[in-house]
Amino acid sequence: DLVCLAGKDGFWKKVNPAVVYTLGYSEQELYSLPIASFVFAEDKEITHNNRTKLLDGKVLHNFVNRYVTKTGNIIWLEWTSVYFSDNEVVLAIAKDITERKSIEKQAEDQYIKFKSLATHFENNIEKVRKNFAYELHEELAQLAAVIKMDVDWIASNMPDLPASSKS
User: Fold this and answer.
1) Which residue from 48, 57, 76, 154 has the least number of CB within 10 angstroms?
2) Taking Cα atoms as reference points, which of 45, 95, 98 lies closest to residue 68?
């Protein structure tokens, strides 16, 4: 787990070796820049909003955001954070959930792919069903027309048949 203490000013005050290892920065680099500078650009606003809630006394449980490592990789961290107003310090513990997020993304991509295939097959089955119904209807209509023509021909060309046979 990544464990850190951060000041109300938005800078890390103390980090454990897991933070240094995971982000790839030295302690000196981590302490010299605001924490927000390590947050992935798309997550800065939600991180800021949750930090504001935290400083207002709300404990953050399972808050997820992304950080950029020194090598430029993006990692997902899940945070639980508590603000101690007496000392103006935040105690935060995070888990690296990058692998879990990757698996979730793969599962979501597979779901979308299979859902798309299922929709494609449903559409094709419906199209085949409509064509089959149309063809069957047309064939029956043609057969009925031929039978009517035959009955009419028989009725007009065979006058000796009983009346019940002609209708």
Assistant:
1) 57
2) 98
Amino acid 108 reads: E
Q: In tens digits, what is the pLDDT along the chain, a chain of 167 residues?
A: 999 999 999 999 999 999 999 999 999 999 999 999 999 999 999 999 999 999 999 999 999 999 999 999 999 999 999 999 999 999 999 999 999 888 888 878 788 888 888 888 888 888 888 887 788 788 877 888 888 887 777 777 777 777 666 55
Q: Which of 95, 105, 30, 35 is nearest to 61 (CA)?
A: 95
Q: What is the pTM of this model?
A: 0.65
Instruction: Give CA 32 to chain center in angstroms.
Output: 37
Residue 99 to residues 11, 77, 104, Cα–Cα distance (Å): 27, 10, 9
**CA–CA gap between residue 134 and residue 45 (Å, rounded):** 57
Q: In degrees, to the nearest 5, what angle opens at C-alpha 53 toward C-alphas 87 and 28? A: 55
Neighbours of 20 (CB within 10 A): 16
In the chain, the amino acid numbered 16 is N
